[in-house]
Amino acid sequence: MKSLLFVVIPAALLAHGDSPLDYPHTTITRKGPDSRAIETSPRPFMVVASSGMLTGGRILNHVAAFIDDPRATLLFVGYQGEGTLGAHLQAGATVVRINGAERQVRCKVRSIEGFSAHADDSELVGWLGGFAAGRRPRRTFLVHGDPEPRAALAASISRSLGFPIELPGWRERVELD
User: Fold this and answer.
1) What residue segments make up the domains of the chain, in order of their start?
2) Average pLDDT along the chain
3) How far apart are CA 110 and CA 132, in angstroms?
4) Which overall architecture, per CATH, does domain 11-112 show?
5) Closest by alpha carbon to 96, among 142, 64, 130?
6) What distance in Å separates the CA atoms of residue 147 and residue 169, rounded to the nearest whole number?
7) Cβ(67)–Cβ(103) under 8 Å?
8) What global pTM score does this model have?
């Protein structure tokens, strides 16, 4: 039984603005009971979820249902942030905790690199550079990302644009004037 489905997206499909996930027999679930019914669906099938780092939502129930199945493949498309379940699985964890329960990882864990919905450093510096032509921000906060890349981006912004950059810590409060 095949456990992984690769979908090749023709360039013409994208050129017409069509969705790459709009293909025959696609079922979109918006409610819990419909989502839970996936577990009993005939295989092979593919679950696509927007909580890509496995930090919450219905995808955790799907992962819990299939993580101990050696026929299943958990495929990550995109970055997994430090400390997330997704990052632990990518690093080769053999036991994880999902919804409070310890689970054995028996499924295959794979990753496809190069897909990201986030702008890279040069794109972010370019976007912030648009403010230099107008009214510069008095304070700029970087609150997203892992600590080392976030600090590197702050240094890049300061070097390139001369903006004051602040890197607040977890739950740190700041006063805005």
Assistant:
1) 11-112, 121-166
2) 80
3) 42
4) 3-Layer(aba) Sandwich (3.40)
5) 64
6) 10
7) yes
8) 0.62
Two structure tokens written together for 146? 């892992």
Cβ(82)–Cβ(146) below 8 Å: yes
79-112 pLDDT, tens digit per residue, is 788 888 989 999 999 999 999 999 999 999 988 8
- Residue pointed to by tokens 């990550």: 76
**Do 111 and 89 contact (CB within 8 A), yes or no?**
no
Q: CA 44, CA 5: separation in Å to the nearest integer?
A: 8
Alpha-carbon distances, residue 116 vs 52, 119, 127 (angstroms): 11, 8, 17
Q: Whole-angstrom Cα distance, residue 142 to residue 154? A: 7
- Own/partner pairs, 121-125, CB within 8 angstroms, 24+ separation: 121/152, 121/153, 121/156, 124/153, 124/157, 125/156, 125/157, 125/160, 125/161
Nearest to residue 69, comparing CAs of 44, 97, 35, 33? Answer: 44
Token digits of residue 43 = 């295989």
For tokens 């699985």, the residue is 89
